[in-house]
Amino acid sequence: MAKTKPGKKDLDSYTIKGTNKVVKPGDCVLMRPSDSDKPPYVARVEKIEADHRNNVKVRVRWYYRPEESIGGRRQFHGAKELFLSDHYDVQSAHTIEGKCTVHSFKNYTKLENVGAEDYFCRFEYKAATGGFTPDRVAVFHPSCMGMTIEEAKKLEHFLCSDCSSDDDAKKALHTFPVSPSLEVKVEPKRRKR
After folding, report:
1. Strand pairing partners for 63?
2. Structure confidence by residue, pLDDT tens digits, 99-148
3. What are residue 123's DSSP bridge partners?
4. Where do the DSSP E strands lie in 32-146?
5. Pairing of strands 28-31, 22-23
6. How far is CA 11 from CA 1, 51, 101, in A?
7. Do 97 and 40 meet the contact criterion of CB atoms below 8 Å apart?
8. Are 30 and 93 in contact, with CB atoms under 8 Å apart?
9. Which residues fall within 8 angstroms of residue 3, CB to CB, at 6 or more apart?
10. Which pTM does this prediction carry?
11. To which H or E segment does residue 177 belong?
């Protein structure tokens, strides 16, 4: 963990104002946007600290929604999909509205009931370049394979008969590039509060 600046102290937790919900480093949170027409931002809390006047700040690592990324939302992005970015920021803890859970894609597909605070992440996103890791995603439609969605959820891995060989050319036919081919600089969209 990074050293704390003089006059500041690291905190183990923070109780969200007006609630009894406790946030700790590593937790995912919903943060109030400056534009109330937008959905809350999602971030992972990296560090919590207070200054000598007990003003609490959180260092966060932002998640981006597909529509907030270069290239925008693509047809294979899920409605509750987020990208863990390399964009870090320090915000007032008072902007935290609540807690949420960001699952791996595999765990998300196994949820019995997806709640309003459940999201999933399968990519890391480089905010400055629009690049993704991994930079390709395999896509298949269970119904095209004669499977139900429930049967597909039980699969650990899926390789169709065309891809079961090591032929990379065939594999490429069943994957979609994720990263845009543009070299565009993106301005940070979140302002310090």
Report:
1. 42, 84
2. 999 999 999 999 999 999 999 999 999 998 988 888 766 665 666 666 67
3. 83
4. 41-50, 56-64, 81-92, 96-104, 118-126, 131-133, 136-138
5. unpaired
6. 12, 10, 21
7. yes
8. no
9. none
10. 0.72
11. strand 175-177
How far apart CA 98 and CA 22 sit, in angstroms, is: 9
CA distance 65 to 139: 19
Distance CA 132, CA 145 (A): 28
* 125 burial level (CB within 10 Å; 0-12, 13-18, 19+): buried
C-alpha 85/C-alpha 59 separation (Å) is 14
Angle at 38 between CA 29 and CA 190, to 5 degrees: 65
Q: What's the length of the chain?
A: 193
